[in-house]
Design goal:
single chain, 691 residues, alpha+beta, three-stranded antiparallel beta sheet, 23 helices, 9% strand, elongated, Kazal_dom, Solute carrier organic anion transporter family member, sodium-independent organic anion transmembrane transporter activity
Length: 691
């Protein structure tokens, strides 16, 4: 191969061919992790020998920043076959799927179960979901800035690296976070349900609830373990979506970058979908696996039922620990990275400022980089779009199973399963499809921003699906007055559970065991229905002599032996809107996630080459601080506003038993429209200001 020279600032040319230390060639070239800081000169020999960039990249692999495969001094020749972008993509995709399964799958699936088990409000559960993003924001600046200028796979395997050489294994920390999240199950007492079988009316009873034990207060304090588990999830997952994306981008051809990242993000979507479906199955298993729930009068249809919410986190914990091993084995760059570095930088946003960043590491350079990026108007509008979209994605992913559960009268497990079935084909296919569209049509930044603008507008239109409501559940004392039988007249009246028909029953609101009367009206419990007798017919629990149920037994009832007046469980109803709503929800997922890869590609292309990791870090900070952190809290607050029936406990209100579904639909529609419109306008403004 011909001689290579580098000339910097008029200095004397350096003959690289005579450089003895081949490992320093990248430094002389100014190439660090595939970033060209210097310039490549070719003389007549190179021209005569017809050596092009591709040939240089192939013949000079030792100078492209790549290194050996292994863990420190423990290196293996046989693993060199895995030193390519495709195998790294496999490892990174599995890591992303593991993270998504734990954080966006299992957490969102079990959120309503955790609320009931540990007596916490929706606002507090929203904060649990946000803790992941809070830690992400705290760590993303040091990781994306210093990691972007260093050994990316090592940072992908380590969440942060201090000058004292103390590091934490990133994907390993994510696994530990899953173990911590499941810890409350193992350190708290077994789930105990009082009066699970016979919460009947006890006439002339003076029993009152006691607050001396303080059990409710101690249960709610377990939320701090969930906070810590989510913080550890965020610490471990931060490098995946900053350094992982840029490392992949540096080691593949420019036109294939969106396609590779699309596959990675598809895995990150399939992970939550798997978490929804697997987590839903675990919720059908009783939380104390050594206890027979039938002996407690419990089954999955019982509102006091607590499923095995913790099993999924043990699985994601073990996966995180094992995945740390292959991630740490990759070198600072893959063979051929120097060749791909020469292809980049042609679509960077034009700026009148002189880019002086990247020359020195430290606080001054961080501030210069911040100034340069924050004056990049298209970049900032893309960030705002990501934040607005982040509110919707984080809010709906956390609370959509719960919304479907209460809006359409489904169990927690069934609702989570439906969401998972919608996310698998829609979210995964759309994420992959977005990257494929960019590659297939070879879209430039302008074309990408036009695509994102149109897709975001479609989301605005589909948001009206949230207005699809089922008939109001007839609930005595909440939506219907006692004695009223006109089910069609059900409306939200507030809460007035006490009535002359149950005033001598000594009922307590802690015992929420809804029963469906033969008058097709739901009652808070057998006690509030005025039922004095229990009839056991196999696994079905029925109640007789119910003074509040407006139903008169007939002669045929006595003949058939059907003398019961209420049956345990909520009244069943079929909502005609469920199928159409799930179809619209699936399309909403498609049009939300189809923009993820194109917008990521636009971000990578409109910032300088050496600021890509840092730029992604800034984008994640904006998207989380203004999007996915307040998103679940905001949506949780909407659920609390719509609550009609709170659990009563000694320390105050616990979780919510019953919602005003009409108000809930309106609240969520207002949020969806507001932030979908904000996303559309942000992409449009980014397109207008792009040069």
């Amino acid at each position: 191969m011909g001689d290579l020279y580098v000339v910097e600032n008029g200095a004397k040319p350096v003959d690289l061919a005579q450089t003895e230390d081949t490992s320093s060639t990248a430094e002389i070239l100014g190439v660090e992790n595939g970033y060209p800081g210097g310039r490549r000169k070719s003389d007549s020999k190179m021209c005569n020998n017809k050596v092009d960039v591709d040939k240089v990249g192939m013949d000079d692999e030792k100078d492209d920043g790549s290194g050996p495969c292994g863990w420190g001094k423990l290196q293996f020749e046989c693993c060199k076959r895995f030193l390519n972008a495709r195998w790294f993509l496999v490892v990174l995709t599995i890591c992303g799927a593991c993270q998504g399964m734990a954080v966006n799958g299992f957490v969102n699936t079990v959120i309503s179960t955790v609320e009931r088990r540990f007596e916490i409000s929706s606002t507090e559960s929203g904060l649990i979901a946000s803790c992941y993003d809070i830690m992400f924001v705290i760590l993303v600046i040091p990781i994306s800035y210093f990691g972007g200028q260093g050994h990316k796979p090592k940072y992908l395997g380590k969440s942060f690296y201090l000058s004292t050489r103390v590091g934490r294994i990133g994907i390993f920390v994510l696994g530990i976070g899953s173990f911590v999240f499941a810890l409350p199950h193992f350190i708290t007492d077994s789930y105990h349900v009082e009066n699970a079988d016979e919460t009947v009316c006890k006439l002339q009873s003076n029993d009152t609830a006691s607050c001396s034990s303080g059990g409710s207060t101690s249960l709610s304090n377990y939320k701090y373990f969930f906070y810590l588990g989510q913080l550890l999830h965020g610490a471990g997952a931060t490098p995946l979506y900053t350094l992982g994306v840029t490392y992949l981008d540096e080691n593949v051809p420019q036109r294939s970058s969106a396609f590779y990242n699309g596959i990675f993000y598809t895995g990150a979507i399939i992970g939550p979908a798997a978490g929804y479906m697997v987590g839903a199955k675990f919720l059908d298993i009783y939380t104390d696996v050594t206890v027979d729930p039938a002996s407690l009068g419990l089954d999955p249809s019982n509102p006091k039922w607590i499923g095995a919410w913790w099993i999924g986190f043990l699985i994601s914990g073990m996966m995180g620990v094992l995945l740390a091993l292959p991630m740490l084995a990759y070198p600072a760059a893959l063979p051929g990275s120097k060749k791909y570095a020469l292809e980049r930088g042609q679509e960077t946003q034009a700026s009148s400022q002189v880019d002086q960043t990247g020359q020195h590491r430290g606080l001054k350079d961080i501030l210069l980089s911040l100034k340069y990026l924050m004056t990049n108007i298209p970049f900032m509008f893309i960030n705002i779009a990501a934040a607005a979209e982040g509110i919707l994605v984080a809010g709906f992913s956390t609370f959509m199973p719960k919304f479907i559960e209460y809006e359409f009268g489904l169990s927690a497990g069934t609702a989570a399963l439906y969401v998972g079935l919608a996310v698998v084909p829609a979210g995964g296919g759309a994420t992959f499809g977005g990257g494929f569209i960019v590659k297939c049509f070879n879209l430039k930044v302008r074309g990408i921003l036009r695509l994102c603008t149109v897709m975001s507008f479609v989301v605005c239109v589909l948001s009206v699906a949230l207005l699809m409501e089922c008939d109001t559940t007839p609930f005595a004392g909440v939506t219907l007055s006692y004695g009223q039988t006109d089910v069609g007249a059900a409306t939200f009246l507030g809460k007035n559970l006490e009535n002359t028909c149950n005033q001598n029953c000594s009922c307590v609101e802690e015992d929420y065991f809804p029963v469906c009367g033969r008058d097709k009206v739901m009652y808070f419990s057998p006690c509030y229905a005025g039922c004095t007798d229990v009839i056991h017919e196999g696994s079905v629990k029925r109640y007789a002599n119910c003074s509040c149920v407006n139903y008169n037994l007939t002669a045929s009832d006595y003949t058939e032996g059907s003398t019961y007046m209420a049956e345990f469980g909520k009244c069943e109803f079929n909502c005609k809107w469920l199928t159409l709503f799930m179809l619209c929800f699936g399309f909403m997922i498609v049009f939300v996630f189809i923009t993820s890869m194109p917008s990521l590609t636009a971000t990578l292309r409109c910032v300088p080459d050496h600021q890509r990791s840092f730029g992604l870090g800034i984008q994640w900070i904006v998207a989380r601080c203004l999007g996915s952190i307040p998103g679940p809290i905001l949506f949780g607050k909407m659920f609390d506003f719509a609550c009609l029936l709170w659990q009563k406990r000694c320390s105050g209100d616990g979780s919510c038993f019953f919602y005003d579904t009409h108000k809930l639909s309106l609240y969520l529609l207002a949020l969806a429209l507001a932030f979908a419109i904000a996303t559309t306008l942000s992409f449009l403004l980014a397109l207008i200001f792009y040069k």
